[in-house]
Design brief:
Elements lengths: L11 E3 L25 H11 L7 E3 L24 H4 L26 E3 L3 H14 L12 E10 L5 H9 L10 E3 L1 E8 L16 E7 L13 H22 L7 E7 L7 H11 L10 E7 L9 E5 L8 H16 L7 E4 L11 H7 L4 E5 L30 H6 L3 H20 L14 H12 L5 H6 L28 H14 L1 E3 L3 H5 L13 E5 L13 E5 L1 E7 L1 H5 L11 E3 L1 E11 L2 H27 L1 H4 L12
Parallel strand pairs: 2-3, 7-8, 7-9, 9-12, 10-11
Antiparallel strand pairs: 1-4, 4-18, 5-17, 6-8, 6-16, 10-12, 13-15, 14-15
Helix pairs in contact: 5-10, 5-11, 5-13, 6-8, 7-10, 10-11
Length: 647
């Protein structure tokens, strides 16, 4: 797999304006009839790519959401999921179900010129005005110089592919080696209801674990612009709310099985996070192994329902095993019975249909495990903007009355929040049953709509709000911004630092499922010095806390939690297999700098005239200099004084 890029260049050219609507075309193996509206972007971009010698760069100005657009492929992660030619060739490469028919693959095209996204309205207006003042043709007349031109700088160190750039990085023996590219990756966020010793890896005797999973990341054509409202946020917010509801119930009722909440990072790039966990489980580098896994419930895209049904997807191949089939059937029953009193139902999909793109597929590659993927689509995605920056708050109809302040919006329970709260309630109840909880306690389990609406606001509208401030550590307060966090996984950093999204989910999960203690800040940093605390079982996080009414000081406190960050970097980089067919090999190039400038360029005639005048001045100055140097004794002679002069 090639590293991700948006090419390198420092060329410039006259500014032109094209009615480039950022939409895609519909394409699949079963149909290839693009609509006139959705074919526009791909065709224009490909024309510019094919005429790249005449195109110095492209600047895209995002507009209002089009009817549909997905720059991803029609079959996401098709080469690293479970459905290969050897697993079941009839299901490989989305042969039976094309999950993302709107996908045009634009994100995976390689362009030999820079492509920039421009967000600031003022900068956009400056460029437009420069174009209209200097480059627009009026009444069919030719272009009048000077012309408005733009130069884009985006020097990229890496070239070719991952294997090449990683080899070049390893061959740098200088005292200050320059990394040409870095592996994509970060950290998974994990938490057990009943924590295990974090230093004891491998199989746990007589332990059975139910995994509840969701993915964290998303991407877009411009990676830093991804928001993934439906693609990822709807799933992990639902799971966070379910974890809160479930932990409150399990404190009172004992369970037969343990529950692992797993939030996987880097899933868009060929399942980085989930493949890493499976690899660690197989090699005794995780606190449990695959034999300890009883079943898996994954929360996929659940916010864009077309009716009152959510759909339960299972793997038809593993269900050919009677034991797996029976466990999946029981899980389906638990899910369907958990919607009692709620305004929706769970419907099982056709047995012959494969799983949609999901982390669960990576577990099935290693072992036949019973599991269900929960989604709002029966066949292809309801998500019209899969992996594009239009998959945002507006896509989920996350709107607020105009007269509300930001803090009032934080507390305002939207219809989307109510809907996801019900899904979280059903998920929590199902997990409680799967873990062996008492059925008489099930209907007492309910997710909190206020928590859900606050999370949606923080993750999709404004991360810098009073609730997110309260649950974060003081040293991490700067990651909170007046906009959503970035959902792009980023690169695996050697400094052991996670990105903002990972920290937000870690601290939210810790506050929703952990216990507030009376430890001081110094005790919270060194809990092992206390007799009843253990860092082998728990993590200890010092958080800012809320500001009480009529006060300016926060009530900070220490949270004892089972939440851990676990490395989410593809095993291919540990193995040194940069051309792996089993694991993700995505890397990101190092960049020298990225910038742009706009200026006026004169006509070629004026440039030649200026050059001619310059050459003439040069030769004239040379002649004058020669003349002056040859006559210097005459021109600069002085009257000599007599030798016998006295003073």
């Amino acid at each position: 797999m090639a590293f991700e890029q948006r090419t390198q260049s420092s060329l410039y050219g006259p500014v032109g304006v094209i009615p480039l609507h950022q939409v895609g075309y519909t394409h699949s193996r079963k149909q290839s009839t693009p609509s006139p509206l959705t074919s526009r972007t791909k065709s224009i971009m490909m024309k510019m790519k094919n005429a790249s010698s005449r195109v110095a760069g492209v600047v895209v100005v995002p507009k209002t959401s089009p009817p549909e657009f997905s720059p991803h492929t029609t079959c996401p992660n098709e080469n690293t999921g479970v459905y290969t030619e050897t697993y079941d060739h009839n299901l490989a490469h989305c042969n039976t179900t094309v999950w993302n028919p709107r996908g045009n693959g634009l994100s995976y095209e390689e362009f030999d010129f820079p492509v920039f996204s421009l967000k600031e309205d003022n900068e956009t207006e400056v460029i437009k005005q420069c174009y209209f003042d200097h480059n627009r043709v009026v009444n069919g007349s030719g272009l009048q110089y000077p012309l408005c031109a733009m130069q884009l700088f985006s020097h990229m160190h890496a070239v070719t592919d991952t294997a090449t750039c990683m080899r070049r990085s390893s061959m740098d023996f200088s005292t200050s080696p320059v990394m040409v590219c870095d592996p994509l990756g970060g950290y998974n966020v994990c938490a057990f209801i009943r924590p295990y010793n974090s230093t004891a890896f491998g199989h746990k005797e007589n332990e059975s674990v139910v995994i509840a999973a969701a993915r964290l990341d998303s991407k877009a054509f411009f990676l830093e612009d991804s928001t993934g409202a439906e693609g990822s946020v709807s799933g992990f917010v639902t799971l966070l709310a379910a974890a809160q509801a479930l932990c409150e119930a399990t404190q009172e009722a004992p369970r037969t099985r343990n529950i692992l909440f797993a939030f996987f990072h880097g899933e868009v790039f060929d399942y980085i996070g989930s493949s890493r966990m499976v690899y660690d489980m197989k090699n005794n580098m995780f606190v449990i192994d695959l034999d300890n896994v009883h079943s898996i419930l994954e929360i996929g895209q659940v916010a864009v329902r077309s009716g009152t049904n959510l759909f339960l997807h299972s793997d038809p191949v593993s269900r050919r095993n009677n034991t797996v089939h029976d466990e999946v059937t029981n899980l389906v029953k638990n899910l369907q019975s958990s919607t009692a009193g709620l305004n929706f139902s769970f419907v099982e999909t056709d047995f012959s249909q494969p799983l949609p793109p999901s982390s669960f597929q990576r577990f099935l590659r290693a072992r036949a495990i019973p599991g269900i993927v929960l989604a709002d689509h029966q066949t292809d995605f309801n998500n019209r903007y899969y992996e594009s920056f239009y998959d945002n708050a507006a896509h989920l109809n996350l709107t607020y009355p105009s007269n509300l302040s930001p803090e009032e919006q934080l507390e305002f329970v939207t219809d989307t929040a109510k809907s996801l709260t019900e899904v979280a309630t059903a998920v929590a109840r199902t997990l409680f049953k799967q873990a062996g909880g008492n059925n008489s306690q099930v209907n007492k389990i309910n997710a909190d709509p206020k928590t859900v609406t606050q999370m949606l606001y923080g993750f999709l509208v404004r991360s810098n709000n009073s609730w997110f401030q309260a649950v974060m550590a003081p040293e991490l307060k700067d990651i909170l911004q007046p906009n959503p966090p970035q959902y792009y996984v980023g690169v695996a950093k050697s400094s052991h630092q996670a990105n903002a999204l990972t920290y937000l989910v870690q601290y939210l999960l810790a506050n929703l499922t952990g216990t507030a203690t009376n430890l001081t800040q110094s005790q919270c940093k060194k809990p092992d010095e206390l007799p009843n605390e253990s860092t082998y079982l728990y993590s200890y996080l010092w958080v800012q806390g809320m500001v009480p009414p009529n006060s300016t000081q926060r009530e900070s406190f220490c949270v004892r939690t089972a939440v851990r960050l676990v490395k989410a970097v593809s095993p291919a980089f540990d193995l040194g297999d940069y051309v792996s067919k089993e694991y993700s090999t995505w890397t990101k190039s190092q960049w020298k700098f990225i910038k742009a400038r706009i200026f006026l360029v004169a006509s070629r005639d004026l440039e030649m005239l200026t050059l001619g005048v310059g050459v003439a001045v040069l030769f004239t100055s040379l002649l004058v200099t020669y003349f002056v140097s040859t006559k210097a004794d005459v021109l600069f002679s002085s009257v000599r004084e007599p030798n016998n002069a006295a003073y």
